[in-house]
Amino acid sequence: MKILVTGTAGFIGFHLARRLLAEGHDVAGIDSMVPYYDVTLKQRRHAILAERPNFRAHLVNLADMPATSAVFESERPEVVIHLAAQAGVRYALEHPESYVESNVVGSFNLLELVRRHPVRHLMLASTSSAYGANTRMPFEEQDPAVTPLTIYAATKTASELMAHAYSHLWRQPITAFRFFTVYGPWGRPDMAPYKFTDAIARGLPIDIHNNGDMQRDFTYIDDLVEGIVRLADAIPVQGQPVGAFDSLSPVAPFRLVNIGLGEPVQLLDFITEIERCVGKAAIRTYLPMQPGEVTATFANTRLLQALTGFQPRVRVAEGVANFVAWYRDYHGG
Ligand SMILES: NC(=O)c1ccc[n+]([C@@H]2O[C@H](COP(=O)([O-])OP(=O)(O)OC[C@H]3O[C@@H](n4cnc5c(N)ncnc54)[C@H](O)[C@@H]3O)[C@@H](O)[C@H]2O)c1
């Protein structure tokens, strides 16, 4: 199948594209190599994908409509998986405009191009941050998502809402995923698993916010990719929910699906796993809560299971060991 993936030089897009290529799909990747974190890491991911003859990279900014349109004209994808975004909860405090450009304008352009060139299934990435200040756990797709705490969350929720409108108006099947703290090899240097591992390995202090009193539903990258690949076949059909808990829209072939492990872990326990794998104790600096952070995330995965028969399974001990092994290899020992 011809699949267009946006954000292929990014952490999740790279892993997803690699899996799709290995399965024999024809993959076109879009990425503008945003220098938000080390571009060398992005180039190395793309170089691995480029080893496959069925991969084509387009270094295009989704906010640039003529350039993105040209990619659609030449590629004519059957399925689109939109992962490109300005991510990061903390960076959003200083650079809010980049979130509007990538997540609102970029996603709008993509929706508009899919309207002109309809696809079997459009999937797009959203985030557990969409649940904002919600405190009812676990987070369920039918819960209201109206209290975003950062411009990151607000722009991702905006892309969900725009996608719903397009799905309704143009009968385009769309699935919006909400991912929960994803980690693993080739991961993001701006996220806690990488930052903590790097600092502990180098003997540098780590910043622990809210005195470590935080829980995250850490999701291993292979589980996440498995969930996405299986959901690609679960095309939403209006009027055909899989249960009372289905987030399927009553007026559009559109649904939201959590992809998370469904087992929140204390941040301090996560750090202990990293210490064990690195073989060094962390130097801990305890700090107050950061603005825009939430204390806990926890995915209800019932809908994912009902749609795909799949339940994420990689626990932190295994996932962190794999990540630290990759970190050592990547950074030369
Ligand atoms: N990693 C997580 O824990 C997590 C959690 C929740 C949601 N998400 C979502 O998953 C998706 C992928 O995240 P990731 O962790 O791989 O992030 P990432 O930053 O590694 O990858 C995103 C990629 O998109 C590209 N990009 C950004 N803006 C672009 C634009 N305007 N045009 C073209 N390319 C652009 C970047 O260069 C980058 O390579 C994002 O939509 C993110 O919001 C990730």
Task: Explain this structure.
With 333 residues, this protein is of the alpha/beta class. It has one domain (2-181, 219-260, 299-313): NAD(P)-binding Rossmann-like Domain (Rossmann fold). 40% of the residues lie in helices and 17% in strands. It has a seven-stranded parallel β-sheet with strand order 3-2-1-4-5-6-11, sandwiched between helices. Strands 7-10 form a two-stranded parallel sheet. A two-stranded parallel sheet has the order 8-13. Helix 4 (96-116) links the parallel strand 4 (79-82) and strand 5. The radius of gyration is 19 Å and the shape is globular. The protein starts with a strand and ends with a helix. It binds nicotinamide-adenine-dinucleotide. Nicotinamide-adenine-dinucleotide binds next to helix 1, helix 4 and strand 5.
The CATH class, by name, is Alpha Beta
From the helix content, strand content and strand pairing, which structural class follows?
A: alpha/beta
- Average pLDDT works out at 97
Q: State the CATH superfamily name.
A: NAD(P)-binding Rossmann-like Domain
- Estimate the strand proportion: 15-25%
Q: If you consult CATH, what is the topology?
A: Rossmann fold
Radius of gyration: 19 Å
Number of strands: 13
Based on the coordinates given, report the CATH architecture. 3-Layer(aba) Sandwich
Query: Low-confidence spans: pLDDT under 50, at least 5 residues?
Result: none
